[in-house]
């Protein structure tokens, strides 16, 4: 059973979903509206928040991730890193307790990898990152290593990376 702050995520799925945000490996699959600002505003609007408050929150999260200049752009116009940051903004505008990332730096160039890593490092929310990117996890406070579906290490990043390399044979 997976718990989140003592909450059984299966027994109370709705409450668990309200506490978590998820960033897909391909953020283009989760940005569904034609303009970035509209997509970021979707969560607060769907909860019935008043338009002025939605606008304030959207402006705040755009600024937080340094993507205010992307607000009026269409998703297909953005780079992979810009899409990743827009998806993160769309999740964080809902104020989750935990943000889960699936391979957040996959297929990003060096500049955008750095931007996404800085965004993850700067989160006030707890981050759970699923990744094979050893540089990304190198300064995390805790890293879990899985092999063939089993947890084989839980601890400090340097040791986790060594364990991963041992298992992967590299």
Major sheet details: 3 strands, parallel
Q: Which homologous superfamily in CATH is the superfamily? A: P-loop containing nucleotide triphosphate hydrolases
Q: If classified by CATH, what would the architecture be?
A: 3-Layer(aba) Sandwich
Number of individual domains: 1
**What is the spatial order of strands in the main beta sheet?**
3-4-5
Work out the helix count: 7
What level of helicity do the residues show?
A: 40-55%
Strand % is 15-25%
Q: What is the 3D shape?
A: globular
| Topology as a string of helices (H) and strands (E) | EEHEHHHEHEHEEH
Q: How would you characterize the overall build of this protein?
A:
Residues 2-106 form the ABC transporter domain. Keywords: ATP-binding, Nucleotide-binding, Transport. This is ABC transporter ATP-binding protein. The protein has 170 residues and is an alpha/beta fold. It contains 7 helices and 7 strands. Strand 1 (3-4) and strand 2 (7-8) form a beta hairpin.
Please summarize what this structure is:
The chain is built from seven helices and seven strands.
List the helices and strands and how they pair.
Elements: E1 3-4, E2 7-8, H1 13-19, E3 20-23, H2 36-46, H3 51-64, H4 80-92, E4 98-102, H5 110-121, E5 126-130, H6 134-137, E6 143-147, E7 150-155, H7 157-168
Parallel strand pairs: 3-4, 4-5
Antiparallel strand pairs: 1-2, 6-7
């Amino acid at each position: 059973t997976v718990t989140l702050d003592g909450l059984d995520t299966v027994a109370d799925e709705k409450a668990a979903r309200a506490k978590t945000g998820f960033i897909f490996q391909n953020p283009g699959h989760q940005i569904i509206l034609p303009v970035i600002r509209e997509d970021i505003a979707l969560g607060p609007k769907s909860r019935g928040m008043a338009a002025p408050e939605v606008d304030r929150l959207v402006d705040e999260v755009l600024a937080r991730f340094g993507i205010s200049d992307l607000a009026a752009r269409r998703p297909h116009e953005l780079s992979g890193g810009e899409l990743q940051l827009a998806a993160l903004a769309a999740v964080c505008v809902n104020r989750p307790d935990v943000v889960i990332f699936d391979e957040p730096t996959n297929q990003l160039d060096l500049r955008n990898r750095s931007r996404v890593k800085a965004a993850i490092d700067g989160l006030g929310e707890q981050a759970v990152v699923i990744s094979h990117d050893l540089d990304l996890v190198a300064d995390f406070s805790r890293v879990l290593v899985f092999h063939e579906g089993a947890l084989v290490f839980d601890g400090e990043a340097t040791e986790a990376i060594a364990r991963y390399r041992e298992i992967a044979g590299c």
